[in-house]
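Dear support,

I submitted the protein below through the web form. The confirmation email said the job was done, but the results page showed an empty box. After a refresh the structure appeared. I'm attaching both so you can tell me whether what I see now is the final result or a partial one.
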Amino acid sequence: MRVCLALLLVPLLSPPALAEPVCQPSVDATGAALNAVRARAQQCGERLWPAATGLRASPVLAEAARRYAQELAARDRIDHTGAAGSSLRTRLREAGYAMKVSGENLAGGPETLDEALAQWLDSPAHCENLMLAEFQEFGLACVSGPGQFRHYWVLHLAAPQAKK
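What the results page shows now:
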């Protein structure tokens, strides 16, 4: 009888497992949020950017963003230069994405996509990336980590090279 009671009590005495918050929004939610921003003119610093056409999701850009968000979380830093000195262009090329133009927005700390977008819209350079009409595709990743920022956001924006 004691064995049964002990087995029943162990789960009751153990602290509940703390689940790490999931910060990765769905592709549909991300596309809707990004395209809602682009559908309206935006004041990015001193310049008013006109509305831009919507973006479509790119699995290749999303995977590149996920890998870089994991690297940032492991390094506990927000930096456009990778640990091995890689640039965005290098990271996208290594992912197999042939780009005509590309941009990268990073954020550390926001818990939601809306918070990350608000940060980016408040930064003229990041806002301009969101509004650049040449961009056609996006990939976004958010990774939770134990470091100072807890959430590491990477948004890749690009237009593919024309097929020959």
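Response: this is the final, complete result; the empty box was a page-load delay. The longest helix spans residues 59-75.
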